[in-house]
């Protein structure tokens, strides 16, 4: 993917293997971000989207990849082959991501694509480049209940060898509660977009709703994108974006990322895809402590999260 060589994403990672480490985080306006992102943050902030670009924003592990796949299929009228043209991060670049060269950054990939683009971000609302709102871009936010979101992040931090060490589960819960994980506080993240959703015309979705009734949520996204697809195509998109289908799809399951970055022998990227897996991880005492703290942080937010279906 460098200018002079035509490396695939995986090859570029392989070539950068000596520079792959668990990168430390540095605060950017109080939000901990991977140091490579923090050091390049002026360029990220200056990114100027086209008004036709779509932003997909999430706290990490809330259902980003699932939504990226649904959107790509909607924009291609359910054409599975078209949506296997490239791996997810090429079809839908990750705005702020910065990695050692020759791995292309999100901005490098975006520069090479003509709008309309499907742009992924994990940035909290206040760090999203203001160009998105000035240009009145559409934006979809997916939120996932805190406990399942954290469990998913815990496994991801074990297998993603560029993320800080998660350490033991007990300590990880407290890091999550204090907002110390990469991309910061889950609580501030979900509240930030919730508060802005009407003013900025953000479609705010829930992972649990997508699990409960994927057809309803795919249709919701379709309407938001001003598309009108047949019932057959919608059914096909729902089928192509089940957890099982995506786990088997080499263009969506992140097996294209070499083991030196994503070690899927530790945990699969497509791990479980369920609501309520937190019950297999929290002890009753941990759950009570978490809930008490959650009440304090979320009491005025009124966001209808569900921790089970
Ligand atoms: S990332 O790295 O932040 O982009 O990860 P993200 O895609 O947001 O989240 C990964 C979790 O989403 C689950 N997933 C799905 N669940 C249900 N259906 C489908 N199709 C699907 N695709 C991805 C994935 O398994 C991760 O959750 P866990 O709980 O770890 O399984």
Widest sheet, order of strands: 4-3-5-6
Radius of gyration: 19 Å
Oligomer: single chain
Given the structure, what is the number of helices? 15
Unique ligands:
3'-phosphate-adenosine-5'-phosphate sulfate
CATH topology: Rossmann fold
Q: CATH homologous superfamily name?
A: P-loop containing nucleotide triphosphate hydrolases
Structure in words:
The protein is of the alpha/beta class. It has one domain (9-298): P-loop containing nucleotide triphosphate hydrolases (Rossmann fold, 3-Layer(aba) Sandwich), CATH 3.40.50.300. It has helices at 9-15, 35-39, 41-45, 64-75, 88-91, 106-112, 131-134, 146-159, 169-178, 186-196, 207-212, 214-224, 231-240, 243-248, 284-298; strands at residues 25-28, 31-34, 54-58, 118-121, 138-143, 202-206. The protein has a four-stranded parallel beta sheet with strand order 4-3-5-6, with helices on both faces. A two-stranded antiparallel ribbon has the order 1-2. The termini are far apart. The structure holds 3'-phosphate-adenosine-5'-phosphate sulfate (PPS).
């Amino acid at each position: 993917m460098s200018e002079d060589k035509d490396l695939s994403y995986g090859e570029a990672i392989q070539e950068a293997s000596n520079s792959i480490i668990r990168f430390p985080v540095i605060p950017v306006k109080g939000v901990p971000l991977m140091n490579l992102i923090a050091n390049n943050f002026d360029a990220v902030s200056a990114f100027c989207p086209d008004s036709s670009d779509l932003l997909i924003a999430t706290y990490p592990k809330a259902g980003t990849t699932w939504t990226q796949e649904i959107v790509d299929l909607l924009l291609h009228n359910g054409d599975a082959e078209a949506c296997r043209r490239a791996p997810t991060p090429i079809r839908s670049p990750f705005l702020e991501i910065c990695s050692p060269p020759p791995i292309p950054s999100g901005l490098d990939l975006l520069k090479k694509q003509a709008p309309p683009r499907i742009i992924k971000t994990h940035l909290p609302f206040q760090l999203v480049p203001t160009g998105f709102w000035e240009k009145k871009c559409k934006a979809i936010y997916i939120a996932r209940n805190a406990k399942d979101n954290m469990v998913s992040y815990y496994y991801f931090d074990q297998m993603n060898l560029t993320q800080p060490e998660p350490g033991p589960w007990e300590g990880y819960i407290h890091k999550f509660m204090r907002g110390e994980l990469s991309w910061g506080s889950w609580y501030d993240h979900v509240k930030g977009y919730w508060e802005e959703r009407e003013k900025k015309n953000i479609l705010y979705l829930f992972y649990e709703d997508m699990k409960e009734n994927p057809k309803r949520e795919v249709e919701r996204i379709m309407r938001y994108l001003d598309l009108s697809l047949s019932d057959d195509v919608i059914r096909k998109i729902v089928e192509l974006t089940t957890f099982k289908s995506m786990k088997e799809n080499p263009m969506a399951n992140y097996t294209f990322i070499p083991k030196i970055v994503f070690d899927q022998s530790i945990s699969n990227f497509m791990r479980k895809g369920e609501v309520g897996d937190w019950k297999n991880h929290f002890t009753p005492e941990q759950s009570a402590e978490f809930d008490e703290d959650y009440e304090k942080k979320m009491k005025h937010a009124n966001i209808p999260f569900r921790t089970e279906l």
